[in-house]
Design goal:
The chain is α+β, with helices and mostly antiparallel strands. The chain has 11 helices and 25 strands.
């Protein structure tokens, strides 16, 4: 069956070195040949192919750009397109298979301007050393981290942590939750990430049991992780649900389809989850995808009437597709911050096993044709991402509001929060991970 990954992989017959329907074994494709192939793709498949940034680049002018990276930047439709990219072939495949190189952390500022661990993968060496969400990061190699984040000095921040190379070591001064400082020397490593950061249950004052899932990315390993999580939820007789997508920047749409089906249940099996609409040259590629997927155990479907979603500015693409796809069928309420705003998706083309091309090629809507959320999905309740507390701490601000809603049917008074705070949160993933991909399995 088709795996939905909002990167619909159509291997088209394209003139040049990358014109076959399977990835080309020959890795000697030149940068100029790859550029020429991308030029043809953009002219035919790019969603905004008729914008001046594309129409102004002619066959002669494209020669002014030495490689596909530079050409894409020139042709990108700047007002809207933040997402189209060219990636190294091996790096892209490794990332989407869950292979990660680094410390496996995301760092942000709390409301007191202290740098803290906002997220950490279970397979990270730092996790094995006891580091958890909420730990204060004071210095890395003697460099104070908080001032760099406050100044949004990305270059200095990245320099402090060093290259994303396995074996590269950092000496990090932490302050633990008990107020004591500890120094940990840790080497970056290669490991498989866990996209399900937390799955547990919450016993509500009403007597109901709520499932609680913190989900970080829609990647290959997610399928088995979700199977485990939803088998647990079903066994625990979950009737309410909190879906935490605060750091989920997207990934494979087929995983989004499966997650939505677990939540909404078998009654929506033949109902439309998502529709893709291409530019007027490529209308034959328009597709409709149902909730149903035969890749999951139907006995673990929850069939919920409602779900509460925790979001931030890092919630993007496939995450937004889940929220939007569920919206016409069950009640979807959200708490946190406005999402990224990416109602479009991408086709992917491999080139010479050296590049992947992922331009925006289609608009994504739900069964009610809703999907123009370029400004993001605004939450029903604004709440700060409280990185001083772990994800399952019932006093964490977003989770506390979500629980209150499930218990009372309403959030605390007012839509906003008296002292709402938003800060940059630095991760180690490439920016292009904030996307939705579609492939054939």
């Amino acid at each position: 069956m088709k795996k939905l990954i909002i990167f619909f992989v159509f291997m088209m017959l394209i003139a040049g070195s990358c014109k076959k329907t399977e990835p080309i074994v020959n890795t000697t494709v030149t940068a100029a040949e790859a550029r020429d192939t991308l030029f043809l793709i953009m002219k035919q498949w790019y969603y905004w192919y008729n914008m001046p940034s594309v129409t102004s680049i002619t066959t002669d002018i494209k020669k002014n750009y030495s490689d596909p990276y530079k050409l894409l930047e020139a042709m990108r439709y700047q007002p809207l397109d933040k997402w189209s990219f060219v990636a190294d072939y091996d790096e892209f495949n490794a990332e989407m298979n869950g292979t990660f190189v680094g410390h496996g952390i995301r760092v942000g500022l709390d409301t007191d301007s202290l740098a803290r661990i906002a997220m950490i993968y279970n397979n990270s060496p730092l996790y094995a050393s006891g580091v958890r969400r909420g730990w204060i990061v004071k210095t890395v190699g003697g460099v104070a981290i908080a001032p760099l984040i406050i100044a949004k000095n990305t270059t200095a921040y990245n320099n402090a942590w060093g290259p994303s190379t396995a074996g590269y070591s950092n000496t990090i001064l932490f302050r633990k939750p008990n107020g004591k400082d500890t120094t940990i020397t840790s080497a970056k490593s290669t490991f498989t990430i866990n996209s399900v950061l937390v799955y547990d249950t919450l016993h509500l004052k009403t007597g109901a049991i709520a499932g609680h899932l913190v989900f970080e990315s829609f990647i290959e390993p997610s399928e088995d992780e979700l199977k485990t999580a939803f088998a647990y939820f079903k066994a625990q007789n979950v009737t309410k649900f909190i879906l935490d997508l605060r750091y989920n920047g997207g990934g494979y749409l087929y995983i989004a389809q499966e997650l939505a089906y677990y939540l909404a249940g078998s009654s929506l099996a033949s109902t439309t989850f998502a529709k893709m609409s291409y530019n007027n040259k490529m209308q034959a590629a328009n597709s409709t995808y149902p909730f149903y997927t035969d890749r999951i155990n139907s006995s673990n479907l929850l069939s919920l009437p409602e779900v509460v979603v925790i979001t931030t500015r890092l919630t993007a693409s496939a995450s937004e597709a889940v929220m939007n796809g569920l919206k016409p069928h069950i009640t979807v309420v959200s708490v946190g911050d406005t999402t990224d705003g990416k109602p479009v998706g991408m086709n992917g083309w491999p080139c010479g096993q050296k590049y992947w091309f992922w331009p925006i090629t289609f608009k994504l809507v739900n069964s009610a044709d809703q999907g123009e959320y370029f400004n993001g999905i605004v939450p029903d309740k604004i709440a700060t991402d409280d990185i001083t507390r772990d994800f399952s701490d019932k006093n964490e601000k977003c989770l506390k509001e979500a629980i209150l809603y499930l218990e009372t049917g309403a959030f605390s008074s007012g839509k906003g929060e008296e002292k709402f705070s938003r800060s940059v949160k630095y991760g180690e993933k490439p920016a292009w991970m904030n996307n939705t991909f579609v492939v054939e399995k």
